[in-house]
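Pipeline run #58 for the internal structure catalog. This entry was flagged by the ingest filter as a single-chain record with no existing model, so it goes straight to prediction. Upstream metadata was stripped on purpose; only the residue string is passed forward. Reviewer on rotation: M.T. Logging verbosity set to normal.
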Amino acid sequence: MGRPLILHRYINRQLFMTTVMVTFILVMVLVSGRFIKYLAEAAAGEIAADALFMVMAFRMPEFLQMIVPLSLYIGLLLVLGRMHMDNEMVVLQAGGQGHGRIVRSLVVPVLVATTVVGMFSLYVTPRGDAEVTRIFEEQKDRSVLELLTPGRFHVKGSRNAQRATYAEHLNREKGVLENVFVADARFEGQGDANRLLTVWAKSGKLVLEDGISYLLLTDGFQYQGKPGQLNYREIGFDEARVRIGGEKSDSRPPEVRGRSTQELVSVRNENQEAMAELQWRISLILTVPIMALAAIPLARVNPRQGRFYRLIPAVLGYMLYVGMLLVCRSAIEDHRGGPLPWYLHMAWIHLVAAITVFLLYFGGRIFRRRAAA
């Protein structure tokens, strides 16, 4: 009884340390790339700088539910591969501790990882996505004054209407902009239907009236039309108001990724996106035990082959597995009309993966018996 417990603790301790290290590296790589993207949006004035860390915090469960299965898979490959390289597996097998004992030693860490990914996938991540959607909706309602970065142009609008705002200085305590430039363009068609309004003012400040935000500009000029045309006008003013915000809009329902799993189950037959999201969440959970079982035979290497002999092919196999799930998810979302055909269910991908794992364990014996027969 004592030797199996020592073996379990030894393997689990090595696996835990390796998995944590791999998870930390992958999180840093993934979070850094996403943070740079959000930082660029903050620099462009599309999102407030103080909301960056809140968005990243709510995105973290989504990152982890993708990283933990891969980290556990790589951790198993590294730990078991090292044990094969150092001939520890030979010693264990000589002592009566075969691969069945190794598999039983990994039951606890695989169950823990599966539980963590399940909690993230089914409960935590949807709430985080809903909060991220809420934050971005709030950013749309925030005024130019709150998002404006001094010395940079802030462009906001749609295809048919755009507004560029610039301020040389911003006194956030007094809420006063200095040397303000506003260019408001409306594109409704060709020719005279297009309108361009340009305003320059010495200063400006935010005012609120009837729930609508205005920029009160003082001591400036308004230019309307295109230079060189007869209808071009220049008007000086002491005070002028520019509307920079709309009335508070009702909160929209969250996107499919932000809906709870219970809601997805109830609407899965009427909404293809809900079906794709529900299957994806379940698939993330199934990848943990399937790939963990695959890592045990894949980590079996000859000391002459090197520790990383099968690491790259094994990782490529994992990427192929997850890539097929992502392709199937996109195909389900794009499907229109009628029930889903069998190939638009992710179950067959997991079945193929399970059969592949079975062949990794018993394929050699089956083929040898057939050859001998």
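catalog note: The two ends are 41 Å apart (CA to CA).
catalog note: Residues 2-43 form the longest helix (42 residues).
status: ready for reviewer M.T.
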